[in-house]
Amino acid sequence: SISEGEKELRDCLQHQLQSIRNNGEAVQSALKHLHREKQNMQRMKRETQMKIKGKYEALRKCIESEERRVLQYLESEKRRVTDDIETTISELENRKKDLEKALADLSDLLQQNKEVVFIQGLNSMEERIKDVSEPFVPLAPVSDVNKSVLEKLAAWVQAMYVAAPQSDPQRNCLVTVYGQTPTLDPDTAFPNLVLSDSNRTVSGSKREHPYPHSPKRFNYWWQVLSTEGVSCGRSYWEVEAGGDRRRWDIGVCYGSLSRKGEGAECSLGQNKKSWCLYSEPGKLVALHNNNTTKLAAESPCTVGVFVDFEAGIIS
Fold it and tell me: Which keywords belong to this entry (predicted)?
């Protein structure tokens, strides 16, 4: 009947309304969560910004304090030397005036025609003539600037505040913001690789190490993976490789890299799942999917590895 049909439609509509209400509540809940996340992010940003500003403000104050001390020393040196020079200048100017006055008086005396007056004048000026006629003896040298101290001061400033920015600021930022300290996973190490007690260093050995059986262990390639993986964000770490006197491989791979057998699917840089930097004396190459790129650079002692997971960047 029409009544039954209407009731069925109303029930269906009520059910749809409830579904819409539930969706609305879910959306509202998601919005609240996102707003909270936004507020938390803003709060974290403010707190981090305050910390960063505080650090740089302290650094600025330190630099300004050092600058004041250096400039005060330079000013004191300038005053010391300048005062000595001005004192000497004043003495020499007075000496010059005495000589000019004596020269004028003697010139006038020579013009005197009366013998008695001339002799009397000469007698009265005898001591004065003797004084101004003495050979000029230069005054003691004025104080000199302490050049040794100034040179050391300039070298110190150069080392502290001029040479420092010439270091790698990008590396400093990477270490500070994204720096990781990975450890090596003994369950993946090839049997002839020996790990340190801290699992931070690895070296090769002619003898096999008695590692326990592990499905994750490489059984042909001399390789070992780190315990920590990268699954999001950005990460940076450094590896001390030993320079160009040794053969070494440093790489990044997916966790699904094969471990068993001697095929290319297990070797770093010889498949799509891995990237590798390979070095031997006189040679440095980058490898990926068995493609080799020779690098026109000396083998480094330290290799920095940067991974931006979302951007798909390895450098």
Answer: Coiled coil, Ligase, Metal-binding, Zinc, Zinc-finger
d(CA 158, CA 10): 85
242 vs 34, more confident = 34
Give, in order, the Cα–Cα distances in Å from 128 to each of 102, 111, 116, 123, 138.
8, 18, 19, 10, 19
Q: Give the containing element (helix H, strand E) for 276.
A: strand 274-280
Domain final residue, candidates 105, 133, 161: 133
279: exposed, middle or buried (Cβ count in 10 Å: 0-12, 13-18, 19+): buried
> What are the angstrom distances between the C-alpha of 186 and each of 104, 221, 265, 272?
103, 15, 21, 24
Q: Which domain holds residue 73?
A: 2-133
The per-residue pLDDT for range 156-189, each reduced to its tens digit, is: 666 655 544 445 556 665 666 577 888 899 999 9
Please report, rounded to a whole number, the percentage of residues in the chain having pLDDT higher than 70: 85
Pull the structure tokens for residue 114.
Answer: 């009366």
* d(C-alpha 16, C-alpha 20), whole Å: 6
Rounded CA-CA distance 130/275 in Å is: 96
pLDDT for the residue numbered 274:
92
Q: Which residues contact 129 (CB under 8 A, 6 or more apart)?
A: 102, 106, 122
Residues in a beta bridge with 280: 283
Does one domain contain both 118 and 179? no
Q: Which residue in this structure is represented by tokens 């001591």? A: 127
User: Is the same domain home to 123 and 254?
Assistant: no
Cα 146 to Cα 77: distance, rounded to the nearest angstrom = 8
| Beta carbons of 236 and 179 less than 8 angstroms apart | yes
Residues in a beta bridge with 2: none
Q: Which amino acid is at 184?
A: L
